[in-house]
Amino acid sequence: MTWRPDAGLVGRLAALGAAALFVGLYPLFVSSYKASEFVLVGIYFIAILGLNILSGYNGQISLGHGAFMGIGAYTTAILVSKYHVGELWTIPLAALVAGGIGFLFGFPALRLSGVYLALATFGLAVAFVQLAQSFHFASLTGGGTGLSIGLPKTPYYLTWGIAAGLFCFAWLLLRGRIGRAFTAVRDAPLAAVSSGVSLATYKTLAFGISAAYAGVAGSLFAMRYGFINPLEFSVALSILLLTGAALGGLGSLEGMIFGALFIQYAPGYGEKISKTAPSVMYGVILLAVLFLVPGGAAELIKRLIRFLKRAVKPLYSRTTPAVETAATSRRSET
User: Fold this and answer.
1) What's the DSSP call for residue 53?
2) How far apart are CA 31 and CA 46, in angstroms?
């Protein structure tokens, strides 16, 4: 039997290898400023990976993901500025704090779905900014002035190394028993319950994992700027993250990198095209992308894989005369 490699798998591995090579070599050929910009792409990539687990695979729409990023950022800022904890140690702590709060928020969210859940998470995003600015917590959060943790940094390889690790974790998680339970809850909750899947367990677990990803992104965000302010984690950030996840293609891990690239660079291109109305041009670019590729980058990847399969298939469909003769004789014997 002749081994025939799966064109889709080969295409995915080739694309991931090319992406890893590009990320590894990118800072060697660009200025430090552009490298620091690309750090933000990695941070957004981590955040929308988590959001995709919640919305794309578990079917729960969130408009409050920016709040979980803020929780992670403030965890790092408070621990570094007030308790002198090393910055690297605060990253897993930010994930635990944000993930724990996300898990707890998942319990009241169990009674909600669709637009009602989106409104509840929207309220979370609004409340977070108000609480961070409140004078009751000013001694901890710095109030409206925010917190400083030192000079801005460019943790390029740290950010992308964590992003790669979290991508692999998500890939393994979603292809296992938990991932199958997530999609069952999303697609057929009644059938999932009849099969023994606990809606409460997997919905809250999805919230917790998603929030933990956002907490890591927020921690790296605080390191990147060296300063945080409550307004940086407003509802606008939550909507931006959901936009990136949708453009990447909900239910696809590979497409999230395109969503992160879009939300980082598209506003800048909109400003270059029209300095008088950059938001309008950004909206035009967004609509154009959605019109051309309604399923996001994930749909584009699927089209490319189908094209590769059609291109590779003729190479393996050819058989030698001897093989054809043997196959014909076996058919005649049967």
Assistant:
1) I
2) 23
